[in-house]
Design brief:
Helix content: 10-25%
Shape: elongated
Strand order of the largest sheet: 9-19-18-17-14-15
Structural class: mainly beta
Number of strands: 19
Largest sheet: 6 strands, antiparallel
Length: about 300
């Protein structure tokens, strides 16, 4: 087949146009996005935060072809979801550059949260940056204490407890520092194993009338998993969802005592100072009325 000179020139010209168009598209810079600072530290790729903390990340996105959209997602346990307020398609600092603060309030109680921020230009090209939050909860204390059965005025049995510090006291020690005492343990004929706050402690067990401070600690029944409690916020929500220890476990009708404690039982509490927490009855030893309790405690700092 013969190709005349004019046709050859047109073919060559068309090829040059196609090549030029392709080269122009390939040479268009992809958009960029950078994490400038974050409220968790100097590492711009990752940080640690507790449940309830608000993390602030400052970012800058640039696109030579113009910014079309900014997006932000979070991935937890393999599931990715858009953050509230995204995508953003307007109100940029300029058509090609935008700097902003992205915030995320940690709702998770453990594991990691991967935040991904992306910019898309008007030619559909996308770039992204990720920031990983490791959820750590050091906003509560956890410890194990042994509360011994306390017969009347027994000055050797450590039956009083500071829930805030985990310190146990006998009657003499507690009387010398009543403001530190949040609760006491006793074993009664009908109450059996029981907790009570100093404000409502049975006078048949101890006479606390001389104490300058008698803290009122509230107790609530709960079916919460003690081992799963891993944050101050979680302890607060568990207490809020609990059932006040009235009537059935406390004939006085108040929530400052809880009776008939059993092995493995979990009790939610709120101290006079407002600290929420959980007590687990780990074990009971001895025979009535000389029954000792081993308990584990988690309490807000």
């Amino acid at each position: 087949m013969k190709i005349n000179a004019q046709s050859f020139i047109w073919l060559l010209f068309a090829g040059l146009i196609g090549f030029s168009s392709c080269s122009s598209d390939e040479e268009t810079p992809v958009p960029t996005i950078a994490i400038n600072t974050n409220s968790l530290g100097s590492d711009q790729t990752a940080g640690s935060a507790a449940t309830g903390a608000t993390v602030t990340i400052n970012l800058t996105a640039e696109a030579t072809e113009g910014i079309a959209k900014l997006n932000a997602t979070k991935t937890v346990g393999g599931t990715e979801n858009s953050l509230i307020g995204y995508p953003v398609t307007s109100n940029f600092n300029s058509s090609t550059k935008h700097t902003w603060n992205a915030t995320y309030t940690v709702t998770e109680t453990s594991g990691t949260v991967v935040l991904k921020f992306s910019v898309e230009d008007k030619k559909g090209k996308i770039s992204s940056k990720s920031f990983t939050i490791t959820v750590v909860n050091d906003d509560y204390n956890s410890y194990t204490s042994v509360l011994l059965f306390a017969p009347l005025q027994d000055n050797t049995s450590k039956t009083f407890l500071s829930l805030a510090s985990g310190t146990t006291y006998n009657f003499t020690e507690a009387s010398a520092s009543p403001a530190s005492v949040d609760m006491g343990y006793f074993y009664g004929n009908s109450a059996l194993a029981a907790f009570a706050s100093p404000s409502d402690y049975l006078t048949s067990a101890y006479d606390l009338s001389a104490w300058a401070t008698r803290n009122a600690t509230s107790f609530r029944s709960t079916s919460a998993d003690f081992a799963a409690a891993s944050s101050a916020a979680g302890l607060a929500s568990t207490y809020a969802a609990g059932t006040p220890a009235t009537d059935g476990t406390n004939p006085s009708g108040g929530d400052t005592r809880i009776y008939n404690l059993t092995d493995g039982q979990v009790v939610a509490f709120s101290t006079a100072g407002g600290k929420k927490g959980l007590i687990k009855v780990v074990s009971r030893t001895g025979t009535a009325p000389n029954v000792n309790l081993t308990v584990a405690v988690k309490v807000q700092k």
